[in-house]
Structures are given as C-alpha cells and as structure tokens.
Design goal:
Elements (H helix, E strand, L loop, with lengths): L1 H22 L2 H6 L30 E13 L7 E13 L18 E3 L3 E10 L17 E11 L4 E11 L5 E13 L3 E12 L1 H8 L3 H7 L9 E14 L4 E12 L1 H5 L1 H6 L3 E15 L1
C-alpha cells in the first residue's frame, strides 16, 4: 500500500507540475532560462561507468611453519649424559617462496639486513644449560644457565651451499665469548623435502674454557683432579644435518642431528678425560605444521 501511495503521489506531483508549465505565458516561458541539463536528450544516454582506481598490488600471505618434538642432547658443554629437551623451530616466508633454511645449532636469528636471498646479517641468541654441583663429578663448581647473544652473517654461495658465521657473548653462567663457523650443503625440492649436511668449527675464549673445563685449587681438593686452566682457541669441530619432509599441505616431519668433538684445551681437561665425554651428540625428531596468515 505504501509503495502504491508513493507512486500515486509522484504521478500527482508530476501532473501538477505539467499543468503549471502549460499555463505559463509564452513570454514568461522565454524569460526563464532553462538549464542545459534539464533538456531531455533525444537519444538514450549511455550508462554511467565510473573510472575505478587501480588496485594496489596484493602482498602474498604470510606462511609460518612450526616444528615441535623431543630431542636428546647434552645438558651442558662436556656433559657425559643426554637430557630430554623440546626441539622447537619456527620458519616464515610469503606466498610460494620456500621457507629459508636453518641448521641445527644456529639458534634463533633475526635478519635485520638482507641483500636479495644471498646475504643476511642480524642478531642471534642461544640458551645453554647449567651444570649443577652433582653433575659430572662431586665438587665441581656450579655453572649457571647462560644467555648467549651476538651477531651472525650468512652468505649463499649458490642455491646449494650456505656459509655462516656467528659470534656470541655469554651473559651469566660462563661469561665467555663463542665464535662458530660453518658451511652447509643443501638439497631441496621447494618445501616438499630438504636434506642438509655441513661441518662446524667452534672457538672459545679463556673464561668459557675455564668455567666449563678448568679445575680450580678448591675443585682440585674436592675432586682429586689436577689443577687445570684452559686458554682461548679451538673448542670443537663437528657436523650437522637436517631433514624435512612434507606429508600434506599442513603437516610434515623434521629430523636433525648435531655432532661435536671437543678438541685442544677442552679435550685436555682432566674433567673430560675422567668422564670420557669428548664426543657430544644431539638428535631430535618432530612434527611440523604450516599455516597462512592473510
């Protein structure tokens, strides 16, 4: 009813306006200027087609892959037993670009500077375990957990060869400096599968060596070991490997291993000789889950 009333009202108003115009005298009709847009077109007007702004390029969605599982590793440098710890890693990329490769032992890293996909520079972090008074040998001093912070740089020499170096400073715990150099040979098919293998060389300063492998006069009396002070230099050589396999669009598997052999001053320590822990091995396996954020 309302719609009918409105239509009738519109018809009536239009009729009234038409009668008023017809009643006007020719002179008055000529005196009143008619706006150009009020003249009815003789042909059908073309439909209005507004010019739409060109859309800005859409950024590809952010993709994140989280790996979680158990790993067995020495609780601290020189430990003769393996401890069960979580294996956690997070990788991110955009669109169809494959996830960037990370090797076991790299530690969390943030690329603040990049040049293409070849060069990366940024901060890196690592948390090492603590040695309690009852670990290894009774009478050895406690070494608290150490937060290591520093800087890393990596260079992809080719699609399959990555070179990486990192320098970190321990805060608390051993309070020493660590430098790590490594190379990785990486074969992959985008994110469907990845296999890597690479050598490692680690150097350490005197405070690091003394805190972990030194024997102070007090510790010598308590343990019966000869006094020993380590110096700066090579700490270990090793090998790392990682395998990733994509099972479905979201789920996959990740396995990794890190082997280190203590050398030079660390290997000559009476502590390491007594407990025979020159070889250090870490292994882990877990599931990966990938998802997108738009």
């Amino acid at each position: 009813m309302k719609e009918t009333a409105m239509r009738c009202s519109g018809w009536w108003n239009g009729t009234t306006l038409a009668i008023g115009i017809a009643a006007a005298t020719p002179a008055s009709a000529q005196d009143v200027p008619v706006p150009p847009d009020a003249i009815a077109p003789t042909e059908a007007a073309e439909p209005y087609s507004p010019t739409l702004p060109v859309d800005a390029p859409v950024e590809p969605p952010l993709r994140i892959r989280v790996a979680l599982g158990p790993q067995l590793q020495p609780g601290f440098p020189g430990n003769d037993t393996l401890r069960l710890n979580p294996m956690i890693s997070i990788a991110r990329t955009r669109g169809d670009t494959p996830f960037r490769f990370g090797a076991p032992g790299d530690g969390p890293s943030i690329a603040l500077f990049r040049r293409g996909r070849q060069l990366e520079i940024g901060p890196t972090f690592l948390l090492t375990g603590r040695r309690r008074s009852g670990d290894l040998l009774p009478g050895l001093p406690v070494v608290d957990r150490t937060f290591e912070a520093g800087i890393y740089a990596l260079w992809w020499q080719s699609d399959r060869v990555r070179l990486r170096g990192a320098v970190r400073r321990g805060v608390g715990g051993h309070n020493g400096w660590i430098a790590q150099l490594g190379a990785d040979y990486v074969r992959r098919d985008a994110d469907r599968w990845l296999v890597s293998l690479g050598p490692r060389v680690t150097l350490a300063d005197a405070p690091f060596q003394r805190n972990w492998f030194g024997v102070s006069p007090e510790a010598s009396i308590a343990t019966g070991l000869p006094r020993y002070n380590g110096g700066s230099g090579l700490y270990s050589v090793g090998l790392t490997s990682r395998v990733n396999v994509e099972l479905t669009r979201h789920w996959g598997l990740q396995a990794q291993a890190l082997y280190e052999r203590l050398i030079d001053d660390a290997a000559r320590s009476p502590i390491i000789r007594r407990v025979d822990s020159q070889n250090q091995l870490s292994v882990g396996v877990g599931a990966t889950y990938s998802f997108s954020i738009r």
